[in-house]
Amino acid sequence: MFQYSLAFAQEMDQKDPFKEFRNRFYFPQLNGKDAVYFTGNSLGLQPKTTQHYVLNELEDWATFGVEGHFHARMPWFSYQDFLTEQIAALLGAKSEEVVSMNSLTTNLHLLMISFYRPTKERYKIICEYDAFPSDLYAVQTQAALHGFNPEDAVVYLKPRDGEVTLRDEDVLEAIRSHGSSVATVMLGAVNYYTGQFFDLQAISTLAHQVGATVGFNLAHAAGNVVLKLHDWQVDYACFCSYKYLNAGPGGVSGIFVHEKHCDNPELPRLAGWWGNDPSTRFTMPRTFVPAKGARSWQQSNAPVLSMAALKASLDIFSEAGMMEPLRTKSEKLTGYLEFLIHQLNAKRDTPLIKIITPADQNRRGCQLSLVFAAKGREIFRELTEKGIIADWREPDVIRVAPVPLYNSFEDCYWFANILEELLHTFAH
């Protein structure tokens, strides 16, 4: 199916329905040419239209001052609403179930205030052992906030001895075995380190069967894999926008709250003025009247400049047809990169590269996590010197993420070509 050749990669690029989208983004320049940028899983590239979108808001601020809230070309009072349909489409949600706001970890805490409601008997939180530190800190401190010892309250899912990723059956068995003591299941939908994509539907179904709520951190999932949060009956989720959604460093985050919870007056939330019903917001009511849907979790005035950057990227996603067609390309692109790495290993008596990301494409996004038999950090540094921007994660992983919006099959070829040279150098 695949071939390790420049001609084959170029042929695949010619057949790519998204080949022109690459020209919509700025690439860092290394050695006088576009870098091979494989770190959209950490910070996505800047769309060339971003400056225009942000400048529009700066111009309206200069022109209208405070009146821009109502008279800007895209009035700031309701700016978050200009994003909801597109975000909902990316998450497999209804528009009223999503809102852009805050930063990711802040949103995770706000959601857990609502959905982690422990009792003396039901107080445990299930999460991955190797979750991103922000997730670990969040679940640990949420348990402590409610008076529980995190060492007892947090159940960490660990791979079996000698394995790197979690087995689906082991995740489900952990939920089943802790059963009536589980208050919430909170996982990273796609693990940042291994690139493993969990079976969100199965997890959600079983969590509800044992009486727990279920939520996901979508930092590495939004804009990467096909999501159907509403249909999967996920209770809550949060996402960031600076990775696959290309909204810039520290870009605005957002939340998902299933419609069955959105307007539940019994569900506690930390209220803010911007989450009040917009029809009465400026009457300054002393009692909080929640807006409809997920917007009631919004606390503060919308960060318009950050949202404008996100809007620039979302419009590109819309033009591409959202995640279904992009995911089709992504499976081929990452599949090609995987093939090339296997080819490099096949050329040596002893394989030097281990892919710890699941081989099953249904259990991964675009990222491959590579562990080298030796000299991993040195190889990473040399890759950078030679025009490959990837990502190092302690203790021993190089993460490479060919993003379907702007990466090409030729990018994958050159990565393999340069890596082959380095393997030859460091093996001797």
Please give a structural write-up:
The protein has 428 residues and is an alpha/beta fold. It has 2 domains: 6-34 and 322-426, Alpha-Beta Complex (Aspartate Aminotransferase, domain 1), CATH 3.90.1150; 52-319, 3-Layer(aba) Sandwich (Aspartate Aminotransferase, domain 2), CATH 3.40.640.10. The protein has 14 helices and 15 strands. The chain has helices at 6-15, 50-64, 68-71, 84-91, 104-115, 133-145, 150-153, 168-178, 200-209, 259-262, 304-320, 323-346, 376-385, 409-426, and strands at 29-30, 33-34, 36-37, 98-100, 124-128, 154-157, 182-188, 213-217, 236-239, 254-257, 353-355, 368-372, 388-389, 391-393, 397-400. The strands form 4 sheets. A 7-stranded mixed sheet has the order 4-10-9-8-7-5-6, sandwiched between helices. β7, α9 (200-209) and β8 (213-217) form a beta-alpha-beta unit. α1 (6-15) packs antiparallel against α14, α2 (50-64) packs antiparallel against α11 and α12 runs parallel beside α14. The longest helix is centred in the last third of the chain and has 24 residues, at 323-346. The radius of gyration is 22 Å and the shape is globular.
Secondary structure blueprint with pairings:
Layout: H1 6-15, E1 29-30, E2 33-34, E3 36-37, H2 50-64, H3 68-71, H4 84-91, E4 98-100, H5 104-115, E5 124-128, H6 133-145, H7 150-153, E6 154-157, H8 168-178, E7 182-188, H9 200-209, E8 213-217, E9 236-239, E10 254-257, H10 259-262, H11 304-320, H12 323-346, E11 353-355, E12 368-372, H13 376-385, E13 388-389, E14 391-393, E15 397-400, H14 409-426
Parallel strand pairs: 3-13, 5-6, 5-7, 7-8, 8-9
Antiparallel strand pairs: 1-2, 4-10, 9-10, 11-12, 12-15, 14-15
Helix pairs in contact: 1-14, 2-11, 5-6, 8-9, 12-14
